[in-house]
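2024-03-11 09:14:02 INFO queue: dequeued item Tryptophan 2,3-dioxygenase, len=365
2024-03-11 09:14:02 INFO validating residues
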Amino acid sequence: MSKSDKYTTIHYHKYLELDALLSLQKPRSTAAGETAHDETLFIIMHQVYELWFKQILTELDSVLLLFREERVREDNMHTVLLRLRRITTIIDLLIEQIRVMETMTPLDFLDFRDYLFPASGFQSVQFRMVEATLGLREEDRITYHGKSYKIVFTEEQQARLHDIETGGSLFELIEKWLERTPFLRFGDFDFLAAYQEAVDRMIGHEQAQISNSQLSDSMKEMRSRMVGDSSTYFKHVLDREEHERMVASGEARLSYDATIAALLINLYRDQPILNIPFNLLTELLNIDEGLTTWRYRHAQMVMRMIGNKIGTGGSSGHDYLARTAEQHKIFRDLHNISSLLIPRSSLPDLPPAVERGLGFHFRNT
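2024-03-11 09:14:37 INFO prediction written
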């Protein structure tokens, strides 16, 4: 199409290719002469999901492109944030759409379930592309009958998934972006040293209050465990070697420097220059939580429809889906930042030069 064609007219019907779109629902039960009314709903629901997966991938690809710049421009961050929020909104819609599917009863589903074998949502290559683009690694996935999740796809589809997995996921690009945070050391200010002093003061103050309280010994012990000390919640951020041990053992994934940067952003979120980075990290958590909720609701719907039966694709059905909801979380490290937060009243004061740096449009040169 040439540029001049944008000035020609087009009909709504043609623009949306509705003849092609509305001809894509082909119930197998109808072809077999045993029309099952709800099979059309089932097909449309899953086609709509695939369309939304396509849009999520469109948004993710654009975000990855912006993050692949050697220096991520601050004026691009608002665009990134808006596109991540769009993904969150789409996921919310995916969750809500399950309610439409649940208007179909288990008996309605049985009218055409046998026609689906061996098709399964597990075979959605676009959803696997979404997971891989976000940063879900193969070693972190629940295996498919003890084999790679890719075995259900064609060679071409497997190659696409491999390219995504090796091309730099959003998780990896976010990690590199965090590692470049300029305010971890700023002149004479060492954020980590100041944070450790603040943690020690906070814990010492709270432990003293507990000891001097009128609580019973058992309650004092419980409160002390809740407060923790520098060898519990805070150990891995106060000790690089401990953090690297946790990464090696699979207890953590985000690098040490990226974790410290995410902590600084969360603690000083009210500073103008850290506001968008904080909201960006929050949106990644929203996406992770949304996908977890979607997986869980999907699992509940499957339990409602088929109970404990094996899925049409050969998986364990509800059990498999429920386990993925728990295990297939991508940004778990960002969730865990909450255990490292300290009250605003305990935050170390920022030197004036750092406060000025955080208060205006800062750009690395």
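2024-03-11 09:14:37 INFO annotate: The chain has a mean pLDDT of 87.
2024-03-11 09:14:38 INFO item closed
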